[in-house]
């Protein structure tokens, strides 16, 4: 008979799946609403119907993927897969740290292999059907190999260090592991824009001209020291457009997808960048970083509490107890807390998006161009304009685009607020 730990994990897995199912079905029904008035003249009838078709296709596909993931996990669990893999690796006679790295690596590899057909189908069938896919098989394979290489190069030593800390550092091993991983994460964020991101995309400095001058002039007016404005070749994978802010300290970068630059006016692009700078000026980047570190510390502390718990291992039919097994099974046990935290953090993220929108409109002389940029982005990305409230509550890190546009339109004109 399954013990309490197993019941909690099983209940959470099933509950989250059915919550997702209900939210997705409600979201599909909400998509049958008419075109919001804010998008009259932006979407033609055929284009809007295409966005609804895209939502239906991606929703059904993601539900199938979620069901297969859940089914595979349950079959693997109840067939004794966790224990069989553990016994196989223990028989090789490696030390516990190397065995743990191989154990967790094998589980991640199994997960990746299971997800690969779904990634292929989404990229080369669904995204292709709706005109988004620009990824060639060569680029897809190269991305896959690069990701695997980085996982081995970076993930393996980090995982080995964490397992060593929990095994050897005594009662305060979780504290050493937390501090070490936090420092490593900060270092990675510092070097990633220059060393890691260029492995996947070309970062080309924005050429001199009207757009560069407009961006630099705006950055000076809000006291934002820019060390680089880059255009990245997002078009080699997708026709979708985006922009993002990355790095910190002297390595702060703003990156514009080439698809964004080619489809928007100078005013719209500066407004989008003003939104990204707003995240920095409002300290959203710092807040998210601190919350992430605090959450990691709580996870590691609770992991130390449940470390080597016989009942937890019994729930997964394990013969032997180990630190690496504790890590895997605790994360499954922690999933209800993680689920609730994700909802709260996404609510905070939506609040931050409104604040960044407000910053852009208030500080840029043509800030209302942000609304026009959002309309174009929604049209080109076939965004869902009428998501259901439950789906937003569970999944959205950004507010629905219609709500963002309404707030932008209701905002006082630039110069009416002091910042």
UniProtKB/TrEMBL annotation:
Predominant localisation class: endoplasmic reticulum
Membrane topology listed for this record: Multi-pass membrane protein
Compartment(s): Endoplasmic reticulum membrane
Residue span(s) of domain CAAX prenyl protease 1 N-terminal: 26-202
Transmembrane segments: 61-85, 97-124, 144-166, 173-195, 285-303, 323-345
Keyword line: Endoplasmic reticulum, Hydrolase, Membrane, Metal-binding, Metalloprotease, Protease, Transmembrane, Transmembrane helix, Zinc
Positions in coiled-coil regions: none
Span of domain Peptidase M48: 205-410
Cofactor(s) in the UniProt record: Zn(2+)
Active site per the UniProt annotation: 276, 357 (proton donor)
EC supergroup of this enzyme: hydrolase
Top-level taxon of origin: Bacteria
Biological process (GO), any one: CAAX-box protein processing
Positions bound to Zn(2+): 275, 279, 353
GO MF terms, alphabetically ordered: metal ion binding; metalloendopeptidase activity
The enzyme's E.C. designation: 3.4.24.84
Cofactor note: Binds 1 zinc ion per subunit.
CDD domains associated with the record: M48A_Zmpste24p_like (cd07343)
UniProt record similarity statement: Belongs to the peptidase M48 family.
Official protein name in the record: Ste24 endopeptidase
Originating organism: Chlorobium phaeobacteroides (strain DSM 266 / SMG 266 / 2430)
Lineage: Bacteria, Pseudomonadati, Chlorobiota, Chlorobiia, Chlorobiales
């Amino acid at each position: 008979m399954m013990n309490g730990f197993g019941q909690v994990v099983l209940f959470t897995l099933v509950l989250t799946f059915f919550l997702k199912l209900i939210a997705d079905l409600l979201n599909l029904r909400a998509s049958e609403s008419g075109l919001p008035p804010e998008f009259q003249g932006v979407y033609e009838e055929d284009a809007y119907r295409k966005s609804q078709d895209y939502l239906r296709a991606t929703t059904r596909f993601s539900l199938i993927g979620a069901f297969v993931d859940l089914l595979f996990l349950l079959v693997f669990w109840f067939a004794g897969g966790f224990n069989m893999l553990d016994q196989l690796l223990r028989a090789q006679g490696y030390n516990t740290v190397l065995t743990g790295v191989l154990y967790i690596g094998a589980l991640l590899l199994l997960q990746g292999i299971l997800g690969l057909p779904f990634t292929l189908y989404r990229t080369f069938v669904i995204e292709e059907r709706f005109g988004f896919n620009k990824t060639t098989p060569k680029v897809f394979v190269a991305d896959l190999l690069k990701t695997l290489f980085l996982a081995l190069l970076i993930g393996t030593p980090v995982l080995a260090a964490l397992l060593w800390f929990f095994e050897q550092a005594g009662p305060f091993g979780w504290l050493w592991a937390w501090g070490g991983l936090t420092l490593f994460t900060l270092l990675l964020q510092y070097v990633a824009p220059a060393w890691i991101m260029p492995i996947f995309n070309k970062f080309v400095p924005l050429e001199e001209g009207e757009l560069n001058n407009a961006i630099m002039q705006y950055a000076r007016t809000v006291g934002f020291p820019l060390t680089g404005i880059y255009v990245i070749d997002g078009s080699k994978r997708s026709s979708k457009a985006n922009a993002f802010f990355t790095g910190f300290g002297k390595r702060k970068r703003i990156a514009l997808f080439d698809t964004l630059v080619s489809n928007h006016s100078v005013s719209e692009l500066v407004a989008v960048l003003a939104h990204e700078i707003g995240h920095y000026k409002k300290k959203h980047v710092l807040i998210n970083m601190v919350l992430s570190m605090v959450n990691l510390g709580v996870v590691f502390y609770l992991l130390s509490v449940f470390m080597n718990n016989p009942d937890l291992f019994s729930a997964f039919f394990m013969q032997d107890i180990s630190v690496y097994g504790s890590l895997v099974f605790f994360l499954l046990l922690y999933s209800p807390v993680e689920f609730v935290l994700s909802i709260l953090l996404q609510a905070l993220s939506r609040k931050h998006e409104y604040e960044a929108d407000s910053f852009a409109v208030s500080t840029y002389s043509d800030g209302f161009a942000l609304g026009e940029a959002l309309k174009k982005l929604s049209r080109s990305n076939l965004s869902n304009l009428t998501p259901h409230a439950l789906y937003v509550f569970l999944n959205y890190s950004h507010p629905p685009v219609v709500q963002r546009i309404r707030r932008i339109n209701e905002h006082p004109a630039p110069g009416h607020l002091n910042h």
